[in-house]
Amino acid sequence: MNAGWYDDGSGRQRWWDGERWTDDFAPGQAAATVSSAPAGALSGSKGSAPVLGFVGLGLAVLGTVLACIPAAFGIGVIVLLAGFVVSLIGLFRKGATKWPSIVGMILAVVGGAVGTVVLIASLVANLPGPLDPTTPTDAPSTSTPTTSEGRPSPEEIADGFAAGVRAGGVTEYDDMPDFYPCVGQFLYDSDLSDETLRIIAAGEIVTGAERDAVVEASYEATLTCDPNGDGSH
Known about the structure:
Blueprint: E1 4-7, E2 13-16, E3 21-25, H1 51-67, H2 73-91, H3 99-125, H4 154-167, H5 179-188, H6 194-201, H7 211-225
Antiparallel strand pairs: 1-2, 2-3
């Protein structure tokens, strides 16, 4: 028997779906054709919920956010790809609403493009810039020490001081083996900065704010290490 309204034996018209009686009745109505079936009997003709479309759209949103974070760009691309595929499947699902799938596919593509731009901009911003042409690459020897960082040892200071003194033509202290080590220790214990002492240890001339302090300290060191003041034993 074909689907339709029939008397089920109780005097009421009941819907026969072609195989069995349903729970739908048509009280007070005569037999009807298949076209007058109740809404419940025709529920299969309604559009189904776009579950895949919304899932794909959600993945596209999440992927866009992750792709715009340089550190998570790779994960974002994977999520965007998954969102695009799920949205595509949802688009071809029969009877489902299409707009969530369409929006999800578009957002997946746009999110990937935006994330790529953000990543490139971040990489460019972190590239080392060119050297400032106005900044000299080799600082004057009088301002940049050539010895290691930190306070030089008394021996290094003594050797540098001796080299500077000899460069000025003074040699009378060469016969005093304890003179230059004494000066080195004196200057090491002084209040002169590490940078200034590194310049002295390099045998270079100190200029700038500490020049006068170096002259005074060198004079006191000479008096301390050579009480006679004439280089004699």
